[in-house]
Design goal:
Arc Repressor Mutant, subunit A; two-stranded antiparallel sheet; 5 strands
Length: 311
């Protein structure tokens, strides 16, 4: 076994332990329902974001951009070159894709670029007021599930302290890309997690099925044409995505066009893995960031040992 394989196996086993600890949390189900609901709400409310972050790599890059623009610990001026290097290092997307993401974000008024007075060839990326408002609203995606699984940490990260919130987001994305990239670690997710709209479609399926709530059901109608319109994807793409889920035995497709989609046991497992993995990232990142800031003593951390800090 190579060193890389050993590291991958160790991360996989650590992730499984963390997922088990999270799913055993008494508030796991309401927190999981909250996670899917807020993720979907954020995407629908900021529809332009689907053009920026419609697959796992671009989603991770978009979150990193948010953190770097607002985080108090990030003192460097943000440039496209820095983001291109980050994307290459973590195998997120091509350099051209990075440029496209920034161009679209600027077109929709989230960012603008200013020329460096000392180097006219360099342009610094700056957040607009629209971007700041989007961050304030989108932070609920992190804060509301965290409040359900770890109210102690949630209270220590108030939205009024925007820089502290961004430090938390930065810690979360670094943790995800460093040792919690569950889309690559979990075999059940590898087949589809990198496809455009994968997380958005899974979230929509969970919401339609009222997953993790007392009204949970396993058979739902989710017409492909309607979903494609909501997700800014083609109907063919959505249909092929569900065909892949069916091939992997995550769902059983009933009537044509997205009628009577049945969530199978493997699909139930994937729903738990996605929700638990993200909740683990939120809880561990919050604790790590708060301890680094001196706002939380390790002895006062009530989280289970597996969910206190990164490996």
């Amino acid at each position: 076994m190579t060193i890389g394989t050993e590291m991958h196996q160790a991360q996989y086993e650590t992730l499984l332990g963390r997922i088990a600890a999270m799913t055993a949390h008494p508030n796991f189900r309401p927190a999981a329902a909250c996670y899917f609901r807020e993720f979907h709400r954020t995407q629908v409310k900021n529809h332009a974001l689907l053009k920026l972050a419609s697959d796992e790599g671009r989603y991770a890059l978009a979150v990193k951009i948010v953190a770097m623009l607002i985080s108090s610990s990030e003192t460097r001026k943000l440039t496209i070159g820095m983001l291109q290097s980050f994307a290459e290092e973590h195998r997120l997307c091509s350099r051209n894709r990075v440029t496209m993401i920034i161009n679209v974000a600027e077109l929709f008024g989230y960012l603008h670029r200013i020329k460096d007075a000392r180097d006219r060839r360099s342009r610094t990326i700056v957040a607009t007021e629209k971007f700041q408002r989007m961050f304030d609203d989108g932070f609920r995606y992190f804060s509301l599930p965290l409040a359900l699984i770890d109210p102690q940490k949630s209270r220590l990260i108030p939205l009024a302290d925007r820089a502290l919130c961004a430090d938390f987001v930065a810690e979360a994305i670094d943790l995800y890309l460093g040792e919690m990239r569950f889309g690559e670690l979990l075999p059940e997710l590898r087949a589809f997690i990198h496809r455009d709209g994968a997380l958005e479609i899974m979230a929509r399926l969970m919401i339609e099925a009222r997953y993790f709530t007392p009204e949970q059901r396993t058979i739902v109608d989710l017409p492909y044409a309607r979903l494609a319109g909501e997700m800014a994807l083609s109907r063919s793409h959505v249909q092929k995505f569900f065909a892949t889920l069916a091939e992997r035995e995550l769902v059983r497709l009933g009537r044509p066009g997205g009628r009577e989609i049945e969530i199978l046991p493997k699909g139930d497992l994937v729903a738990h893995q996605i929700a638990a993995s993200f909740l683990c990232v939120f809880q561990i990142a919050a604790g790590t960031m708060l301890r680094r800031r001196g706002l939380l003593d390790a002895a006062d951390d009530a989280a289970p040992a597996a969910l206190r800090e990164s490996a």
